[in-house]
Records
---
Amino acid sequence: MTTVTPLKGSVGTAHTRVEGRDKVTGAARYAAEIPFAELAHGWLVLSTIARGRVRAMDTDAVLAMPGVLTVLHHGNALHVDTDYAGFLGMPPDPSVALFQHDRVPYAGWPVALVVARTSEQAREAAEALVVHYDQEPHDIAFKDGRPDAYLAADTPVGPGSTAKGDLDAELARSAVVVDAEYTTPEEHHNPMEPHAATALWDGGRLEVVDSNQGALWVQGELANLFSLDPASVRVRSEHVGGGFGSKGVRAHQVAAVMAATVLQRPVRVVLTRRQMFSLVGYRSPTAQRVRLGADPDGRLRALAHEALNQSSRVHEFMEPSATPGRVLYDAPAHHTAHRIVRLDVPTPTFMRAPGEAPGSFALESALDELAEKCGVDPIDLRLRNEPEAGPVSGLPFAGRGLIACFRAGARRFGWAERDPRPGVRRDGRWLLGTGTAACTFHAGAVPSTAALTAEADGRFTVRISAADIGTGARTALTLIAADALEVTPERVDVLIGNSDFGPAMIAGGSMGTSSWGWAITAAAEDLRERLALSADIPPEGITVRSNTMEAIAALPPKERHSYGAHFAEAAVDITTGEVRVRRMLGIFAAGRIINPLTARNQFVGGMTWGISMALHEEAVRDPASGAHVGADLAGYHFAANADVPHIEADWLPEDPDDDDPVRIKGIGEIGIVGAAAAVANAVWHATGVRHRNLPIRPDRILMAGRDA
Ligand code: MOS
C-alpha cells in the first residue's frame, strides 16, 4: 500500500501519549531497569566536608568486602579531559571530571566510586569506606552586599548586563518610585526518576543507556571527556521520568563509563535521591533589587533590575533573573544586571525557566507594588506599559499576546469585580485576596536533523535524536509528522533518544518541540515530493534526511517569546500563618499548541511549581557542615496534591507572524514564570502585607506585622 491519503488535523487535537500504555503497564523500561548480562553496580561516595582535601582513603578494607570489584578515586582514576567547549559553547562543569585531584570544593563532591557485583554490595561497601580529610573553613553565606560578588560577563543565554538611558535622572523625574529587594531561596529539581546510567564496551564501541534530556548532548560530552571519537560512542535514553534541566552530563554517566572501561564489563550507576541534591544542579538562591520609576498614571520612566546569584568555586553559572524586563516593559531608562558570588557550594544549573522564574517573582511583585502606589489597576498598568518593540533590542515582536491574555484571563477570573483595597475580605478565619502577574519565556528553534522513512508496508518511521522527558514530546512529534505527511498518526512511528540519529536540539529551553518539529516537517516535505515522483517503495523503504541549519539561520531577527497572565486567589490565616491558594488561572499565548492534552499538563505543572515556589520550596544549608538539612523529598517541602487547588490553564489561538513553518513557541517553562508573583500579590491583597522573600512560610506571615 503506497497511497498517501491527504489528511490534516492531528495537530491541535487531543491525543493520549503514544507510549502511555507501555508506561502504565510497566512495559516501558527506564534506564536503571534495562537488564544486562554480567552487570556490575557502582555506588558513589560523596564528601562529608565542604572544603579541603582528601588525605587518605581506607580502600583495602572495602576491597575485601563481599562482591567488591574495585574502588575508583583520585589516586587511580582514568584521565578525564575538560579542556573543550561543551553545551552552548561553555566549558564543562569540572564536577563531572571525576576523581582528577584531591580537592573538595563542596559538600557532596564525589570522592570515590565503589563497584560491586550487586547494588546492595556496592552500597554497603561505599558506606563502609572511610575517607580522611584535611578540612578547611568553608563559606556558604549567600547574601547581598558581599564585596566578592562580581558583575557577570555575557553568556550564551544572554548579556550579563544591559543599560540604556540615565537611570538616576529618570528616577529623580518620577512621581512614583518603587525600590525594593526580593529574595528567592535555593530550589531543587528532583525528577521522579533518579539519574541512572549503564555503560559498556561492545566491539570497540562505548554504549551508554541513560536517562537524559539529550542523547547526542551526553554522547558529545562523554566523547570529549574520555577523548574518544564521537562515532565510537552511542547514548540511548528512551524513556525519561522528568528532567527539568537536571539531566545533562552528570557524575553518574562519567562514573559508569570510567568503571566499565577499567573493568571491561557493564557498569550501572544510579544516584540516590540524597545524592541528587549535590550532584545534578539546582536553582541558585537570588537576591534582587528592582527599581521602578513612573509618572502618576503608572507609565514607566525607569526600570532597573539587578540580580545576584551564587555559583561554586569550580564553575561559573549565571541565573539570568534580570531578563524578563528585557522583554516585558520599556522605559526611557532601562537597566538590567547580574552579579555572581562564588561559594563553597555545588554549581547551580538551568532549572525550569532559569532566570525567568525567580526574576519574574521580583519584577512582577514590583509591578504590583507600583500599581498600588499609583492607584492603578495592575492590568491597566501593564496596558499602559506595553512596548512597541523589544525594550532592549528594538526588534519587532513575532507575536505578542500579553494583553490579550490579561483580557481573556480577567474575564474568566472575574477580575472586574475586584475591590483593590487590601486586607478587607474575610471568610471565617481566612483573609482573602487575588493577584495577577505577567509571564514570558523565549521561543525559537535550534538547528536539528531528522530522518524520515516511507516503509514498504505503508507506515512511516521518524528517527530524531529528541528526548521525551515526560512532556509528551514523542506524541507531539507523531502528530506533527502525521500532518506533514497528510496521514493519520497511527501510521507514524517516532523513534527518539538515540545519539546515532544525528544532531538535534535537546529537550530544553522550551525549544525541543519547535526544533524537532521543524526538522520533521522539512523531511516530510521532501519525502512527499519523492513519493510523488515514484510510488514504488523498495523493501528497505525510502529515507530522506533534513537539516534545518540554513533555514533557521535565514530567519530575520525578531523578539520571539511566549506570553501569559496568571491569576490567583489566596486565603491567609493570620493566626496560624497558613496560606492556601484557592484557585488559579493561567492564560497563555504560545504559538501553535500541538496536543491540547499534554499541553495542559505542561502549563498546570509549571503553575504548580509556581505555587510550590511561592509557599513551600527552600533548600536549607547548615552553616556548620555546608550541607543540606533534609536532602530528601520529606525534608524538602514542595506542593503536593492537597496544596494544589483548582487550577485552570488555557491558551489563546496564536499563529505568530513569523517565517518558520511550525510556529511553535514552546510551553515547557512558561507556566512557572510569574506564577509565584501572582500568589504573592494575592497574599498582599489578602493581608495588606508585602512578602518579598520566598517562600511565604507560616512564620513569615506571623512575623510580618512585627518586622514590617
Ligand atoms: Mo530546561 S531548565 O531548559 O531543561
Note: The first strand starts at residue 40 and ends at 46.
---
Amino acid sequence: MYSTGNRITWLQGPGANCAGTGPVPPRPWHFVLLGPPGVGKGTQAEQIIAEYGACHLSTGDVFRYAAHDTSGQAPSPAMAVALAAMKRGELVSDATVVELVRERAQCLACRYGFLLDGFPRTLEQAHALDGILARIGRPLDAAINYFAPESLIIERLSGRRVCQQCRTGYHVANKPPRVSGRCDACGGELIQREDDKPEAIRTRLRAYAATCDPVLEYYRRQGLLREIDASSDPKAVFVHTRDVIQKLNRAVSS
Ligand code: AMP
C-alpha cells in the first residue's frame, strides 16, 4: 500500500516543497487519465496510487486550491480569469493551463511517478505535454481513457459533495456521510462544488465533448491509448485498470 506526499508543490507551485513520503515504487508509472468530468478518474487514481504508487496531479485541483486560497493574497490576473472560467464550467485557456503545468515540471519528474488527471484536454495541451516530458526524460506509459453514458455521469456529478475543510469527497446516494451534511473525517460542512451545479455540469460536458476526440486520436495513433468502461462500480472498474497496468508491466519487463 503506497501513499505519496502532500502534493503541495503541485497545488501551490514550485515555491512550495513537498516531502515525498513512504516507499518509492520499483517502477514509477507515468499515466494520463482521460475521460469526461465525473466518470470516476479521481476514484481510480486513488486506487492506482494505493497499489502502484505515483502522485495524483489534477489540474482541476490546482484551480480549486487557488479558489480557496486563504493566504489573503489576491490571485494573479491570469489565475483570476482562469477561476472565473472554471466557475462557469468552461475550459481555462491552453496558455494558462500549460504554463501552470510547465512550472510544476518537477512534479512530473518525481521518483514516485504521476497520474495526470484533467490534463491534457486539448490537442495543443497534449503537444505541450510531450515537449515537457521529452525535456525531463519521462515518457508516458499510457493514456487511460474512462468512458460511461452521459446520464450516469450527470447522476454522479450532481450527487457529489465535498467537505469544505478537508476536501474529502462524498455522494448523496453512493457514498453518504454518517451525519447528513457533515464530513465523517473532520465534521466540516459538506458543500456542492460550484461547477457541480446542473448548468455548469452541462457546460463542462459540452466543453469535454468539443475537445476530447483529437486527444484520444493523438494517443491512439501512438499506441498509448487504453480504453476502460467505467459504468460499473469503482471496484469493478479497478479490476480493468489493474489488468491494463499488469499488461503494461509484462510488456516492459519482457
Ligand atoms: P476538473 O476537476 O478536471 O473537471 O477541472 C475543473 C475545471 O478546471 C474545469 O472545468 C476547467 O474550468 C478547469 N480545468 C482543469 N483542467 C483543465 C485543462 N486541462 N484545460 C482547461 N481547463 C481546465
Note: The pocket of adenosine monophosphate is lined by residues 37, 58-60, 63, 85-86, 89-92, 97, 118-119, 121, 125, 195, 204 (CB under 6 Å).
---
Amino acid sequence: MNREEFAASVVNCEDDVLLAIRQGIEANKMPPISVAPELGRLLTILVRSSGAKRILEIGALGGYSGVCLARGLGPDGTLTSLELNPEFAQFAKSNLAVAGFAEQVSYRVGAALSSLDALVAEGARFDFVFIDADKPNYPHYLDRVLRLANPGMLICADNVLLGDRILLPDNQDDSVVGMRAFLSLMSHDPRLESVVL
Ligand code: SAH
Ligand code: MG
C-alpha cells in the first residue's frame, strides 16, 4: 500500500456522485485531470470553514472540483465557473445539477482571461477562488483575481509543481515559465500570505 492508498483507506473522499463524474469523464474521453479525491475534500473543507459565499473557479472540466467547492457553500452561496470548452461546461453543468447545485452555479464559456476581464468590469467580488486552467496564464489569472477579491479571499491554485517539471531549472516550457512567474508573484505580493503544498 502506498501513502495515497493508505490515506484513501482511512477516509474515502469519493462518494457515488463524484465517482460517477470521474467515470463520465473517462467515458467521454475527456482528459482525466480532475482533482484527486483528497484535494476535492480539502476544497470542501476550506470553503465551509472560511464561510465563503461567492466562489470563482477557473477551469471546470467535468465539474468534479465544482461539486467539491459547491458542497462547502451554504444555501445562499454561489459558484461562478469559467471554462473554455462549451461541451465540458455543459457536462459540468449537468453534473452540478445532479449533485443538487443547479440553482447555485453559473458557467461562463470562453477564454478565462476574457471572462475575468468581464467580471472585473462588472465589479464582481469573490471570497474564494480555485485556479485550475491553462498553466501559462496563471500569472495573468492571479492579477485579475486580485482585482476581484473581497477582503480575506482564499486563493487555491492547483498543479503549481507541474508534476515536478518546475524543479528543472533548464525547463523553459510555457507552462513552467508561467508557473515560475505565478509563484514569484504570489510569494512576493505583500497582500498575500502564501504556502506551496
Ligand atoms: N478543475 C477541474 C479540472 C480542470 S482541467 C477539476 O478538478 O474537476 C483544466 C480545464 O481548463 C479544462 O477543462 C480546460 O478546457 C480548461 N481550460 C484550458 N484553457 C482554458 C482557458 N484559456 N480558459 C478557460 N478554461 C480553460
Ligand atoms: Mg489541476
Note: Residues 33, 35, 132, 158-159 surround magnesium ion (ligand 2) (CB under 6 Å).
